[in-house]
Design brief:
The structure is a single chain. The chain is an alpha+beta fold. The protein is 39% helix and 22% strand. It has seven helices and seven strands. It has a seven-stranded mixed sheet with strand order 1-2-3-4-5-7-6, with helices on both faces. Helix 3 crosses helix 4. The longest helix is centred in the middle third of the chain and has 24 residues. It is elongated and about 70 Å long. 27% of the residues are buried.
Length: 224
């Protein structure tokens, strides 16, 4: 069994209600990071095609040259795009900022938190949970580490904890669904290194809107 040593000054423990404000804050700050999200969004050719077509209509309606219409279209389109991204990232179905701890109180659910104990006061710097999906399968949720503490093996230790918990609960499989947004997408190589296999990709093409793409990784917990 993979059992990494705890990074110096880091202690992984089960969630308790007194930590709810800290895990909600971590989820809000780290689950979706606006800059990489914007960059990925601008990488969708579909958005640029729409911008060019819209600018062309603007030029025809206002009697502007094509180059001026393109400039005006992009200058007006960027703020609109940023507003759409902000709304998208804060949809209740995606953010659930205030519902992070609920997984701990669900059937067969648990939430682990990584605490940095090196300072005068302990602080939450990472978390990962298990959510019951079916009698045979569980899902890893809320796996994230504070940006200032990445690269220290905290994510790997949290992942090992939730995998072992799923095994102890008798699940046959465990999976993780990742949206192509912000810091969560960077977890894919870690899942691959721990024996997870690509199980399903969303059918939203990259050229359309890459933010809507998702990737499900699955791991068998029992030998066939």
């Amino acid at each position: 069994m993979y059992n990494p040593a705890s990074p110096d000054g880091i202690r992984v423990r089960k969630f308790s209600d007194d930590l709810e404000a800290d895990v909600v804050k971590l989820n809000r700050n780290e689950r979706y990071r606006i800059l990489p999200t914007i960059i990925r969004g601008f990488g969708a050719p579909f958005l640029h095609v729409v911008a060019v077509i819209g600018s062309s209509f603007l030029g025809v309606l206002c009697g502007l040259s094509f180059s001026v219409a393109i400039l005006c279209g992009y200058c007006s389109g960027i703020p609109v795009y940023l507003v759409i991204i902000h709304i998208f990232l804060n949809l209740p179905s995606l953010s659930n900022h205030g519902q992070v701890a609920e997984v701990h109180h669900q059937k067969n659910g648990i939430l682990y938190v990584a605490m940095d104990t090196s300072g005068n006061e302990s602080s939450v710097v990472g978390m990962a949970g298990i959510e019951h999906m079916s009698s045979s399968g569980a899902r890893i949720v809320r796996l994230m580490v504070k940006s200032s503490h990445r690269g220290r093996g905290i994510g790997r230790e949290l992942l090992a904890k939730v995998i072992q918990y799923a095994k102890d609960m008798g699940y046959e499989t465990v999976d993780a669904e990742i949206l192509n947004i912000g810091s969560l997408w960077s977890n894919c190589p870690m899942y691959a290194s721990r024996g997870f296999h690509s199980h399903h990709r969303s059918y939203v093409p990259h050229w359309y809107f890459p933010l809507l793409r998702s990737h499900v990784w699955m791991k068998q917990l029992r030998e066939n």
